Amino acid sequence: MTNADPALNERLKQVMAEVLDVEPANIDDAYARGEADRWDSLNHLRLITALEETFGVSFTMTEIEELCRFDEIRALVGKRVG
Amino acid sequence: MKPRKHPLRLLTPPILVTLRAYLKYRCLISPRAEVELTSNLAIGRGTVIGSFTKLKSSDGALSIGADVEIATSCTITSHAGGLRIGDRCMIGPGVCIIGNNYRYDRLDVPIQLQDKVSQAGVRIADNVWIGANCTILDGADIGPGAIIAANSVVASRIPPNAIAQGSPAKVVFTRR
Fold this sequence. Notes:
The complex is a heterodimer. Chain A has helices spanning 6-20, 41-55, 61-66, 70-81.
């Protein structure tokens, strides 16, 4: 599964949109923590929990702290499910 | 407000409470805090209690562990069910930890005059961080390593290493 997998892309956007209460259309590769509204530290943890439950994956604390952008999340989730 | 049961505590200068607590428990209590040094109270070594914090232990056992940091303007009251805070906890400013409840089933009696009840008391394990302005109620049981986000309300069990938020607080993440 490549980073450009459309199905993964869309599913990730849906999960992020639900957790962060934004429109999926507003999420692009540069969508980043700290710059986006509502993507604060607590919502970041909610997002991680939602990703782990949705995709059946698990992240280390180091990975959780380093994930800051949508494209990084897509790459890591893609690697884990692929 | 009910009259104090022990006027001697009212007349004791706060700096003497600070000194007595240091000598007895090796803890630091701000002279601006209000701490009832009763036989129900136990405080561990190295604990620090900030200004304008109130500790009421006349109604039940209140045990605070070692190296606990309690910030300013907290209210901690124990009742029959007991209240225990473990070692190395951090309690943020404005936190209320209330070990009792009131009955309210009678409409013909003012709530103030109905019984105080305490179910299981409050249990806070070691290494817990409670954020600012949280309310911890009778029945709360917070596991070791847990973090309670600011402005949350806890009245039930929070598992170890959980990060919880909300009213009532729900687990949003588990530390690993």
